[in-house]
Amino acid sequence: MDINTENLKAEMVAEINQAADIKALEELRVAILGKKGKITEMMKTLGSLPQEEKIALGKNLNILKTEVEKALNAQKSALETKELNARLASETIDVTLPVRPEQQGRLHPISQIYEEVVAIFGQMGFEVAEGPDIEDQFHNFNALNMPANHPARQMQDTFYIPNPDSTDFDDSFVVRTHTSPVQIRTMEKNKLPIRVVAPGRTYRSDYDATHTPMFHQIEGLVIDTDTTMAHLKGCLYDFIKAFFEVDEIPVRYRPSFFPFTEPSAEMDIGCLKTKNELKVGAGTDWLEVLGCGMVHPNVLRAGGIDPDKYQGFAFGLGLDRLAMLKYGIPDLRTFFESDVRWLKHYGFVPLDMASMTGGLSNNGGAAR
Ligand code: PHE
Known about the structure:
- There is one protein chain.
- It contains 11 helices and 11 strands.
- It has 368 residues and is of the alpha+beta class.
- It has 2 domains: 5-90; 109-340, Bira Bifunctional Protein, Domain 2 (BirA Bifunctional Protein, domain 2), CATH 3.30.930.
- The longest helix is centred in the N-terminal third of the chain and has 40 residues, at 51-90.
- The model is unreliable at 364-368 (pLDDT under 50).
- Bound molecules: phenylalanine.
- Phenylalanine (PHE) binds at residues 178, 180, 219, 258, 261, 291-293, 314-316.
C-alpha cells in the first residue's frame, strides 16, 4: 500500500482550516479520527502489512495523527473565539444611562449669592437670624437710635403702611428699610453672646439701574464681652476674600455715620474702573461695598443688653449689589423682571450648592 502521509496531512489540515463552525469541525474530527475515521481505518490496515512497512507507515500515521490533532485544536480555539466575539457583539447591552434632559429651572443669582454668603459666615460660626418684612417703627428706627423726627430717618425713603388700629403716624408700620431691625429682634431674645447674619428683603422708594424698591441686604451682628473693631475688620476682610474667591484684595475703611453704630465706617474694595468694565480686586479705584461699625450703646440698651458689660460690631451690605459685581450683571432692575431668558443666562444649576468645601460658585451662572 502506498500512502503519502505528507499529502494527506496537507489535505486534512486545509480542510480543517476551512471548517466554518464548531459543528463542521467536529464532523471533520469524527471523519478523520473517529472509530471509522480515515486515520483510524488506515491504522487498522497496519496489522496486515509486512514488518518494515508496518513500522514506517505506523510512525508516519502517528505523526499525521498528532499534526491533525494540533490543527483541530488550533482551529477549534480560533472558532470558539470567533463565536464568542460574535455572541458578545450580538448580545451587547448598553449599560450607560441615557443622557438626562437638561434641567430647565435655574437658581436666581440672588438665591445663589444668599447661599454663598450664608456658607461663608456659617463657616465662621455665624447663625442665620430672621425678622419680618413688615416692621414697626420701634424696630426699624427708634431702637436703632433713630427716634421720631431724627434727621437720619430722611436718609432712607421709607414706605409706610397705615396701622388699622391707630391714626397716629408714629404707630404706622413700615416695610423694613434695612435688615438692621433684626439686630434688635436678636438682642431681645436675650441669648448672649450673639453671632448672627440676617439676610433678607428690604424696601426703599428708589428706582434706577442700581436701585429697585425691593432689594436684599445681609446684616451681621456680633456681641460679646470683648469684641472690638479689630474683630470687625478681620471678619469682613476674610468674608470679602472668600466671597470674591481671591487670596488677596485691597480694602480700606472710611469713617462714616450711622445712628446705630459708633464709630461707623464704610468698607471699600480695590477695583479698576474702565469705560466698559469694572474689575474687582485690583487697581487704583475704590468701590463702596458695606456699612459697619461698633454697636451704639443706645442700641444695646434698646435691645435689653447692658452696654457696660457687652459690646459688639454690626455690618450691613447689599446682596444685589454683590451679585451684580461678582457676576457682572449691569442692571439691577433686570433681576426682578421674571424673564426666563435672563434667568437661563445668569441663573445657577440648582443642585450644585454653594459650599466652602465644594466651592462657592464653581458651577457658574454668568461666570460659566
Ligand atoms: N443698615 C445700614 C444701611 O442700610 C447698613 C449698616 C448696618 C451699617 C449695620 C452699619 C451697621 O445702610
